[in-house]
Amino acid sequence: MPTRRDFLRRTALGAITWPAGIDALGRRLHRLHANEQEFWEVVRQAFIIPEHRIYLNVSTLGPQPRAVIDAVVEHTRRVAMTYPPGVDWDGLKARLGAFVDADPAGFAFPRNTTEGMNFVANGLELGAGDEILTTTHEHIGGLCCWQLLAARRGCALRQLELPVPPESAEQLVDVFRRAISPRTRVISVSHVNFTNGVVMPVRDIARLCRERGIISVVDGAHPPGMMRVSIREIDPDFYASSPHKWLLAPQGTGFLWMRDEWRRKLWPTIASGGWDDLSLGAQRFNHLGSLDESRLAGLDAALRFQEAIGIDRIEARVRELRRHLHERLAANPRITIMSPSDDALVGGMVSFKVAGEESLALQQRLARIELDGTEWSVRTRVIGEYDYGWMRLSPHVYNTIEELDRVAAMLPA
Ligand SMILES: Cc1ncc(COP(=O)(O)O)c(C=O)c1O
User: Fold this and answer.
1) In this structure, are residues 274 and 287 in contact, taking their beta carbons and an 8 Å threshold?
2) Is 399 exposed, middle or buried (0-12, 13-18, 19+ CB in 10 A)?
3) Binding site membership of 220 for ligand 1 (Cβ less than 6 Å)
4) CA pair distance 253, 107, nearest whole angstrom
5) Above 80 in pLDDT, residue 302?
6) How confident is the model at residue 84 (pLDDT cuts 50, 70, 90)?
7) Closest CA to 346 of 395, 302, 305
8) How far, in Å, is the centroid of ligand 1 from the Cα of 259?
9) Does the beta carbon of 74 sit less than 6 angstroms from any atom of ligand 1?
10) How many CB atoms are closer than 10 A to CB 130?
11) How many CB atoms neighbour CB 370 within 10 A?
């Protein structure tokens, strides 16, 4: 006799296995494996980005492929049909755990990196005089939670400057090694800096933290879906991310992974039933009241979409696009590039300045621009934070080399 629990479980599983389109896409891509050009054309067709729109801002928000939209809509429809809602937490954690190589039991699903980072900062026992080290390349989403602690509890927050662009990973680790003091309790650092795409040596920084008894917190808003990530290898205390960026999941989809000891020790920021049942581990952080579960159905579909292409192939393509863009920009004498050129030091972003044109003015110009008799709309991001004033471009799998050439041709030479 099936129990209500079985029924809920089946419904939940059904709810996240419809995007049959992804399986068909996967089979098609498999057949096209050796045909590079057609492979990426088929991937592009999976998106609904208009033809003359050149989207280079996945680092803010990823455009969702059709299969993800379908999964969200279908889940919403089922809820409206009054099927019992449900999330297959174990299935979702297992799929995500395989994708970012992490123990599935460590996942919670806040709405984004900002919320995940706040869960960490608010949940730690930090007080007056405790020092938090971070950098002048943090996004407000990974920084303000520490500013709040400094204002409210008297913690000392120090933002360290990083070389731009850095020459080596060791040089970046040294910035922290030199700054650590007996009062340092937390090092909070981005995995990929939003300012210029630098890949921070988070594994070495986390190791340094462990040696010195410091809590390591990684703002991993960008890497999942951009490159192969192994949280197991980084081995941080916390890793927060926003799959609605490079992983192409629905807006408002985050995750926070925490090390085993924190699953019982971290204070929940949002308390609901079970908040104090330590046997629930990280699942205590998923007790958030009623949720928009459709975004989790979308996250599952986004993971399947990336699996269908293959994360190594995605990373190789992102690197190819980034290198091409970097080379085109470097050939322009009016452009100064703030991102490293070495693949080992940079993810899928190129940040730069154009002599004689403010980045904001350039952004506005590119938003509606004519080239070769066609009107294009290029979406970019200006890094106004910290007064950097850089233009940032982030290409992903739906972009083409031709689009990048077009954008390079739109810049003042
Ligand atoms: C490094 C980094 N951290 C955090 C965030 C905030 O992300 P979210 O708005 O998804 O919380 C961003 C957003 O661009 C980011 O680049």
Assistant:
1) yes
2) buried
3) no
4) 13
5) yes
6) confident
7) 395
8) 21
9) no
10) 19
11) 9
Place of tokens 């280079």: 56
**Which residue type does 208 have?**
L
Tokens of 217: 């917190």
Q: How far apart are CA 266 and CA 276, in angstroms?
A: 11
Residue among 189, 194, 217, 385 to mutate when testing ligand 1 (max atoms within 8 A of CB): 194
Q: Which residue is associated with the tokens 């989809």?
A: 253
Q: Report yes or no on whether pTM surpasses 0.90.
A: yes
CA dist 145 and 122 (Å) reads 8
pLDDT at residue 113 tops 50 = yes
Any alpha helices (H) in 213-310, and if so which ranges? 231-234, 262-265, 294-309
Phi, psi angle pair for 153, to nearest 5°: -115, 0
Q: Encoding tokens for residue 375? A: 């009107």
Full strand arrangement of the beta sheet holding 390-393? 335-337, 350-354, 390-393, 381-383
Q: What is the 3-state secondary structure (H, E, C) of 82-110?
A: CCCCCCCHHHHHHHHHHHCCCCHHHEECC
